[in-house]
Structure formats: C-alpha cells, structure tokens
Amino acid sequence: MTNMKRTICVAISTLVLSSASFAQGKEPSLKVTSLSEYGVSKEYPFGRLHPDAPKETAQFDFMVGDFDRKERTRNQDGTWKEWVTGEWNARYVMNGHAILDQSFNSGSQVSTSNMRIFDDKKKKWVVTWFKMPGFGTTVAEGEKVDDTIVFKNGTDRYVFHNLSENGYDWVLKKNINGQLVDVWQISCKRKK
User: What are the angstrom distances between the C-alpha of 68 and each of 71, 92, 94, 127?
Assistant: First the structure.
C-alpha cells in the first residue's frame, strides 16, 4: 500500500469513527486538548482560524459551532417529504487551516462528515464528503458567489445560502432533464 493510500485510509477511518460516535448520540470529541495552537481546545471548543490560512477560509465562519437542523427530500412524484430533525456541527481543524463538519439525521440515523479546505492555488473550495452507514463519498469544488457558496460535482450543485451568525440553509440541486431541481433542503439554526 502506498503512503498516499495509507494516508487516505487513515483519514477516512478517522472521519467514519468520529461520525459513528456522533450518530450514536455520543458527544463529539470537541473537548479534547488539541495538538495544534489553532485547533480544538478547552479555551476554543471549535478551534479557530489560523492567521496564515487563506483569507477565504473565513467564508465558512457561519458554520463553525453547534446547530439544530431540519431536512427534507422530494418524493418520486415531486412533492416534499416531511421535515426530519437532526444536528450539524463544525470546527476548525488542521491547525486552523480547514473546517471539519459533521451532521446527523435522527430519522434515517445517517451521519455525514465533510472536510472543507480552500485551495489557494485553484482559488476554490474543495470538500470531501463521507456518509455512514452505507458508506458513500464524493469530492466537490466550489466558490463564494455573491451571498452564497456553491459547490459543483458534475451537473449537481450544493448551495449554502441565507448565511448568518444564527444559521444557514443548504440545498442540493440535481440536473433533471436539463433543469436544476431542488431535491434536498436543510435548514440549520445555531444552538443557544
């Protein structure tokens, strides 16, 4: 196994185990003492942005913290299903150069994790998404467009909008017969 493959396996294992404990209702490991100056610590339970990180990294400040979330998806006939509740949290990792977020859907018991890094050379966000149970993963690139952050994966669009200190909304737009259709909506409100 090459070093690159080994590193990817370790990263995936770490994210999956972290997501699995989050999905089982265990408190996320936000209270551990960080090995880095800008990571998670008692003083900074969600880490903090490193001053040398690309300035665009701060574009995801709205997400850092703990949130209650609700989500819904479309039925086959195009109508919306009922809202389902869950949680979403995010913190600075990699010594304040990246953001790791996790979400949990209480209805389906699905847990996801995303590693968000701004690639200063490409001038784009790169996100790697993982899902458990029923392992799934994907990578998407994105950028801030006006008051939104839009990620693209093929013809799909993942759009963060209504961004504020108090919360945010997210929508997955799928290309269906040449038109972008909202198929999954999430709304997050910061926990007090």
Answer: 10, 19, 25, 22
